[in-house]
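Bumping with the actual sequence this time:
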Amino acid sequence: MKQELLIGITESGVMHTDADPPIPLDTKFQMVKESGVYDYFDKTPPLELEDDYRRCSEKYELPILAGGWFYVLGRDEDLLMENLRLGARLGSLVHNTQIMMDHQDGSLVSDEQVVEIYLRAYETGEACGCRPTFEVHVNMWSEDFRRIEKVADLVEKTGDPISDDTGPFPCHFQNRQSPRAGSLQHP
């Protein structure tokens, strides 16, 4: 069966140049729709702007099929669950979950902590209709990319499926914490 590849744009990417003043939300949706290039908007808005995003999405017939956010474990677990539910209310199918490498207490996030939050997010996402994906990226738990397979194996042992976003994966070490997270030498 052939599947259609949908192309989206993150809300922060809708601009003329970085130096230009901010563009009103309605105008951003209009620009994206009129470009004829994109099929959907990618955004998890602040809760207080949920209605504004829904209105613009409906007005321009441009769905919000994905969103994402950065999370610090020990602080943002409930925010992740709420953002999954918010995404579902806006029509998002996936939520790009970016778990920072450091826990709120300053320690590195452990594999077990990643598994625990993934399982909780997966359960919430399945219930509401917006699945979490865990991004592979710098400054995240997965910056030591050797951990990804270990975490995936731990999740699979629970019987739950694993999803991951292997798209944005720049492998550079400009962040001084990178070697600490990955037991790698700084160039």
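The tokens above came from a reply further down the thread. DSSP finds six helices and six strands in the chain.
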